[in-house]
Design a protein that fits this description.
The chain is of the alpha/beta class. 31% of the residues lie in helices and 14% in strands. Strands 11-10-9-12-13 form a 5-stranded parallel β-sheet, with helices on both faces. A 4-stranded parallel β-sheet has the order 2-1-3-4. Strands 6-5-7-8 form a 4-stranded parallel β-sheet, with helices on both faces. The structure holds ligand SHN and 1,4-dihydronicotinamide adenine dinucleotide.
Length: 507
């Protein structure tokens, strides 16, 4: 029974918000066959408007949600597209009983009036004020509660306080914002930008950390497009959008593109129309990058055995550009140059790796590739208690066995930088140098240590030969990486320590 997915959106009285919710349910649902996907709006007044069509006061960020969170799942009719945000009760299904009324997806080919066979999917949850309903599937395993993916650009009030307080018995993943720069950049290009400067238009927040996320997005956009970028806020502290536009113009910009840092059109984006700029990019909307970010977070959450204790879900993790042209200083450790080698040979001491014992118990470690190298290193990571996520096109028999017995998760597909979400360490051990390079670069940007199996100097860590003697752990690296020499030295060290220990024990 796959865990249901709830995509949490801010919500707005503007029809753009409901349209986005519908599109996301369709597009994300298509990526996650068999998973019940719904949306929920966090903002109470926006929801009230959409559900009841009542006028609402202007939205004010930072106010608690009152009343129930409602999913935007409308009455479900088999064979018809979901339209509109109005929820309606869906009958509970009982195995062996006649199905009456509308049939909730994803019942496999349900026919009204016929007996339901096989496992019964959890019904669309009946909503309880202040929490998500917990469904008990009839005759199946208990459902652990939904995975809630906050479709928010920054971790401000709603993501950090509001949403976690509302979710009971499920898991809230990290917000999607850190993954969406590619989508924002696409929208800028699509609009004919960037021109000679970019004005990044964001909602704003009272949380300084949330504003820092926007500033970081701005600087990454600047790197990508090579033009000045300023942030302008439509709400909250920080420079207003009008002030930021004026500042860009005062700096000489004459061909400004507004990069709209919103998921959908809403109350705020209307204000962008009056700005003295050359062009506006459209909101991110249902960009494939957003769909992928939601799918990835869901996939990670169901891959965890202990989701509520997962150190990752609420974290904000900035991802680099997937396939983008980041500058070299954002990449990994500089490759060894001819000059570097000469210096080394001339006796200039080279910086050496710092040996550290990592406590990985319960921490997410991502392994890209599942061949010989991954298979050799995974046992030590399992011994350390790491929560292992393997992403690889094909996996060794050993790794498939570990996956089958729940020791780790294996996702059989190409690795992407989004897989780094929540990781503390990544092993780039595919035999695809480009994939390894992209991972290493994105890991560098997020300060996740990365071992590159195919190019030690392009990673930020390397793997020692390890061994144990009684209560001692031995790790050996060599100044010039040399696995055989290193492994042999490890064996010598372990034997010497064993002899030393047995010598001490003798009277
Ligand atoms: C730089 C380093 C970076 C990193 O961390 O990945 C790295 C890099 C490379 N290894 C290569 C080959 C092999 N490495 C092994 C074995 C080990 N390799 C390990 C560490 C390191 N390997 C890091 C250096 C640590 C240091 O010395 O300071 C050990 C110690 C730890 C571990 O991996 O668990 C482990 C001993 C395990 C044990 O016995 O306990 C075998 C043997 C086998 O596979 O059975 C082979 C193949 C057969 C052979 O050649 O002997 C290649 C060539 C690839 C190619 O040809 O394309 C590269 C790439 C390159 O050199 O650039
Ligand atoms: N550091 C070390 O000790 C060693 C490093 N190497 C290097 O490490 C790399 C891996 O070596 P092996 O494990 O022996 O290779 P392998 O061929 O046994 O396994 C490669 C794995 O990468 C996966 N893969 C390939 N492209 C992928 C992509 N885009 N996304 C996700 N998965 C992908 C494959 O499905 C497979 O699981 C090689 O490039 C090799 O040069 C090789 C031997 C030892």
């Amino acid at each position: 029974m796959p865990r249901p997915l709830v995509i949490a959106l801010h919500g707005s009285e503007h029809p753009g918000a409901a349209a986005l919710a519908d599109e996301l349910v369709t597009l994300v649902g298509a990526e996650l066959p068999g998973v019940q996907v719904s949306t929920a709006w966090v903002d109470a007044r926006a929801r009230a408007f959409c559900v009841d069509q009542l006028p609402v006061p202007e939205l004010v960020e930072g106010e608690p949600v009152e009343g129930p969170i409602r999913t935007a799942v409308p009455e479900l009719v088999e064979g018809e597209l979901v339209e509109g945000p109005i929820p309606s009760p869906v009958p509970e299904l009982v195995e062996g009983e006649l199905v009456e009324g509308p049939i909730p997806t994803p019942v496999p080919e349900p026919v009204e009036g016929e007996l339901v066979e096989g496992p019964i999917p959890v019904p669309v949850p009946e909503l309880v004020e202040g929490e998500f309903a917990e469904g008990e599937p009839v005759g199946g395993d208990p459902v652990e509660g939904p995975t809630v993916v906050p479709a928010f650009l920054t971790a401000g009030y709603h993501v950090l306080e509001d949403l976690p307080a509302l979710v009971d018995g499920g898991v809230v993943t990290g917000h999607v914002g850190p993954d969406l720069l590619d989508a924002v950049a696409d929208r800028v290009t699509e609009a004919g930008g960037p021109g000679d400067a970019i004005l990044l238009a964001a909602a704003g927040s009272k949380h300084a950390e949330a504003r820092a996320e926007v500033e970081a997005a701005a600087s990454e956009l600047g790197v990508r497009f090579g033009v000045p970028v300023r942030v302008g806020y439509l709400y909250g502290d920080g420079a207003s959008i009008e002030a930021a536009a004026a500042a860009l113009i005062a700096d000489g910009a004459r061909d400004v593109t507004v990069a709209t840092y919103f998921l959908a059109d809403g109350l705020y984006t209307a204000r962008l129309q009056g700005l003295p700029v050359a062009r506006l990019s459209r909101p991110i909307s249902a960009h494939p990058v957003l769909v992928d970010a939601i799918v990835q977070r869901y996939a990670h959450s169901v891959g965890t055995t202990d989701p509520l204790n997962d150190p990752a879900p609420l974290g904000a993790h900035r991802l680099g550009f997937a396939g983008g042209s980041a500058p070299s200083q954002q990449g990994c450790v500089q490759p060894v140059t001819a000059q570097g080698a000469e210096e080394f040979l001339a006796g200039v001491p080279a910086p050496e790796p710092y040996l550290l014992g990592l406590h990985l118990n319960g921490r997410r470690v991502v392994v890209a590739g599942a061949g010989a190298v991954a298979s050799r290193r995974i046992p030590q990571l399992l011994d350390a208690g790491a929560r292992l996520h393997v992403v690889a096109l094909a996996a060794s028999e050993q790794i498939r066995t570990w996956a089958a017995t729940g020791r780790l998760t294996w996702t059989p597909r190409e690795v992407t930088t989004a897989d780094l979400q929540g990781a503390w360490v990544v092993l780039a051990a595919t035999n695809d140098a480009d994939a390894n390079a992209q991972l290493a670069q994105a890991a560098e940007a997020q300060r996740i240590f990365c071992v590159r199996a195919d190019d030690v100097d392009a990673g930020t860590a390397r793997t020692p030969a390890t061994g144990r003697s009684a209560d001692l752990r031995v790790g050996v690296l060599s100044d010039t990486p040399n696995p055989r020499h290193t492994a042999a030295a490890r064996t010598v060290a372990v034997e010497a320590l064993d002899a030393w220990a047995s010598g001490k024990e003798q009277p």
